[in-house]
Amino acid sequence: MRILVTGGCGYIGSHTAVELLNAGYEVVIVDNFYNSQPNVVDKIKTITQKDFAFYEEDCCDEKAMRKIFSEQKIDAVIHFAGYKAVGESVEKPLAYYRNNIDSTLVLLSVMKEFGCRKFVFSSSATVYGDPASLPIKEDFPLSTTNPYGTTKLFIERILTDIAYAEKDLSVALLRYFNPIGAHESALLGESPNDIPNNLMPYIMKVATKQLPILNIFGDDYDTPDGTGVRDYIHVVDLALGHIKALEKLEHETGVLIYNLGTGKGYSVLDLVKTCERVNHVEVPYQIVGRRPGDIAACYADPTKAKEELGWTAEKGIEEMCRDSYNFVIKNI
Predict the structure, then answer these.
(1) CA 251 to CA 248: how far, in whole Å?
(2) Tally of domains within the chain
(3) Which pLDDT band, with edges at 50, 70 and 90, does 137 fall under?
(4) pLDDT above 90 (res 108)
(5) Is residue 269 included in any domain, yes or no?
(6) Which of 25, 83, 148, 202 is catalytic?
(7) Is the preceding peptide bond at 135 cis, omega within 30 degrees of 0?
(8) Does residue 148 carry a catalytic annotation?
(9) Domain with 28 in it: what CATH number?
(10) Which of 133, 144, 163 is nearest to 257 (CA)?
(11) CA 259 – CA 44 distance, rounded (Å)
């Protein structure tokens, strides 16, 4: 099978491309380097010792997408390309709606034109909003607390409506919890192009003294230590979940929905202290006000993915922190 990986030079996309190539899939990557670096293309080739097609294009460009599909016989799409920062989405909602939704609509249109009927979507636990109870199951009510999450929820609905109308379409909605960590080679990891919005790269910049102090947004949540609790999952475990979803789509049509998480919740301070302990570093921090759009706690019930996909997260929080730091110190 030949898989189009949109945003394949980004954090999750690049790790998934590696696992796809290692599993014997042909891969075509499209990325416009909005929040990624061109050297990732060569890093993926170095890790896998395999070649693949690459296009520097924007997924919102229908002409460019049509060219890719005409040149490559695409069997399935894994759609990672999209803006992803919660805080930025609150400040720039129009940009998030335009980019995230337009790119998906373009892809679906071109896929239909070229007879590509398998689509794996990079969704998010943000579609559960502020959950009434924990852990979170796939059949929980859906709502959102920020525009980023709303784009994910809208796209899920778009995909569901199209799959209802087009009975040959196979869709997997993968609701990620909080990916962190890096590839064991230290060649790939989370490396945002500007000031980090996600917690782990922010911790890493403080741990390596690139930034003086970590801002922790709120310590008055209803959690054991007052800081936000999340389900952190190693990015390689997450990448392997996409391969399991692709295998499932070989035999299923319609919409399949899976949480990809560990089922364990860790607070911001848990993550900070674990990073300090396993990497023998200091991460000075200060408590600041809550960030718009954030919730107190969020962690998965991953039972459905285990039962239907045969997938479980294998790597623990210490390995996540160790791999993150190893990537950063080798790529400063």
Answers:
(1) 6
(2) 1
(3) very high
(4) yes
(5) no
(6) 148
(7) yes
(8) yes
(9) 3.40.50.720
(10) 163
(11) 26
